[in-house]
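Reply to dn_fold:

You asked what the input looked like. This is it:
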Amino acid sequence: MQQRLDKEWDLSIDPDTVRLFILKAKALSAAVNEDYDDGAEHEVEFDGDRHASHHHDGLVEEASEDLTEEEFRELINDLNIDEAAELIALAWVGRGDYDATEWADAVATARDRPRKRTAKYLLGLPMLADWLEEGLEAIGA
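and this is what came back:
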């Protein structure tokens, strides 16, 4: 494991908080993959001339048992503007959009994004957990 001699990056967001987001993102990713892996295609069935009916048990279960996405959204909404910007910047550094040496630029660009859409944006990143991990590693946090 690589040792840090000096703290090069002064983060507003605690790296342990980022690790919590990583765990939540992994849980969300696993839930999506399990739904696809169960083999159910959730076909639309027609009952004579009646309207199409579509049943998806997973949505009911999700609403009652799996609050991971809701928790994820709440955690993001609880972040201040600097923390939210740094979380996005970490994902961008991990994804390769920015190099670790461009950290300040990544944070500044992320800070300019609409605050209301942070949770939706992050949830839309397909490899969020991996990119956050790689971002933390890249900046030595």
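Residues 1-7, 33-65 have pLDDT under 50 and may be disordered.
Hope that clears it up.
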